[in-house]
Amino acid sequence: MTRVLLLGGTGDALRIARQLGREHVYSLAGLGKVPDDLACTVRVGGFGGSEGMARYIEAQRIALVIDATHPYAAQISANAVTASRAARVPCWALRREGWQPQAGDDWRRVGDWAELTAALAAFERPLFTLGREPLAHLDDIPAHQFWTVRCLDPHEGNARARILATRGPFTLEGERALFAAEAFDVVVSKNSGGGATEAKLEAARERGVPVVMLRRPPLPAVDREFERVADLLEALRIAV
Ligand code: NAP
Asked: Which pTM was predicted?
């Protein structure tokens, strides 16, 4: 029997976890919702770096690690490869394809927060859809800007920032209504890929609103890489 350790925290990972029997383990960092309706074991919280994960793999007699974490969760992806090498088990990964700009899109690609704020200088009403990072900068908002920050965690805003604590998926109708009501003149996004949060790009396209896109971090090579959940599940059916 191949005992799987699935690293998750994404909708795709949850789809895989739903197919796993009770001998397998689904691991979450503990930032979002923890599902309570899975057949497999759910564990929550960090392992204590790659060494802690390697110890876990050995102690739990894990035979395959699957990294289905978010494409911007670079630390856990690096740890998965280091730990599985140390424990001598294979590591697979779901590496979801990023979005591509379409005709009429105006994407400005940035690599870090400094480049991001420089790219935003000409705008007044950004919508941030990057997670919680902007919350650390609410005291530095330029006088000509009003920020809307959409993220999972409730957080206090201020005179120049509103926090929308909400989780996807987001519909096109919902995004259209939000863009119309708030008159955003730029959207700040990670290139997450997938359908759950893509509607903001279509709403931006319709309104001619530019997108400041944070580049994906580099991720390590793995033994097998999949773009689609269905392909990974198929390989798993053969392997398990
Ligand atoms: P990260 O920077 O790559 O990881 C930070 C630390 O969190 C890791 O070193 C690990 O702690 C722990 N960790 C992360 N994912 C874990 C998992 N699935 N199981 C157990 N421990 C985990 O990750 P992040 O960007 O903070 O993301 C945290 C979680 O949120 C991930 O599960 C990710 O899939 C999900 N998520 C992230 C984003 C994003 O934009 N970054 C978006 C949507 C969902 P130890 O070193 O102690 O093991």
From this structure: 0.94
